[in-house]
Amino acid sequence: MRIDLMTLSDELARLASLDDCVDYIQTMTDTLGFQTLIYDYVPVPLSHEGALINPSVFKARNVPSDMRAFWFERGYCQIDPVQQCAVRRTAPFAWSYRPNTCSVLHGCLGEPYKPVIDYILDNGLTTGLTVPLHLPGGAFATLTSIITTTERDAEQHAQTSLGDLMLLAHAFQTRASELLAPTECFCNHAHLTRRERECLQYSAEGLTAKGIAAALNRSQATVNLHLSSAIRKLGARNRVEAIVKGLHYRLLKF
Hints:
Elements: H1 5-13, H2 18-31, E1 36-42, E2 57-61, H3 67-73, H4 81-86, E3 93-96, H5 114-122, E4 127-134, E5 140-147, H6 154-160, H7 162-179, H8 194-204, H9 209-216, H10 220-233, H11 239-248
Antiparallel strand pairs: 1-2, 1-5, 3-4, 4-5
Helix pairs in contact: 1-7, 2-7, 8-10, 8-11, 9-10
C-alpha cells in the first residue's frame, strides 16, 4: 500500500476525537495485514529511578478485554519488553516473541518479564511493529501494530511494513497532539496539591521557608508542612531531592 502523507494528514484533520483518529489508523494498518493496534502516550516516560511510568493515554483496538487491567492494575506496563526497548530507541522496529527469531526483544525476555511474555503468548500477540515517538518537552508515545498469526514469515512481513507504519505514526501523532486533553499532558506519577507545588517552586527559586511564607501570606509552619508533604509524596529524602524530582516530573517550571 502506498500512503500519501498529504491525504493522510487531511483525513486526520477532519476527525474530531482521538478515538476517531485511532479507528482511522486501525483501518489503514488492517490493509497492511495487521489485526491489532495500540497507541499510548505519557508526558514523562520514566520515573526518576528509571522505571516505566503508566501512560496517561492508552488506546487499543482488537486486544483481549482484560489487557488494560493486566497492564495498569497488575504492573505489566513496567515489565513490558516492547516498551522497555521502545523508550530507549529512536527508530521503528519489528519484534517477535517467537523462538528462533532475531528479535530485538531477546535482551528483555528473562525471568522478570515472564508474566507479560506468558500473557502475550497465550493471546497470540507474538509479532509486531513499534514506532517510538520522542516528543518535544520529553513526552513519549508509541504506535504498535500486531500480527495475530502463527505464520513463520510474520516477522518478515512486519519488517516490510516499517516505513508505512512510521509514516502513519508520525501523521497520527501530529493530530493526536492537538486532541490530547490538558490533564493527559501532565505527569500523574506524583500528585502534589497546588499549594505543595507552589511552595516547592518557590524553594526551587531559592526562597527559604520564611521567604515562601511571606510570598504566600501564610505561616512558616504551614509552608514547612506543605514542603514536608511534597517531599514525602515524591519519595525524596530532603528538599533538594524533592526539587530534582519535581523538575523531572515537570511539576515545576524551569
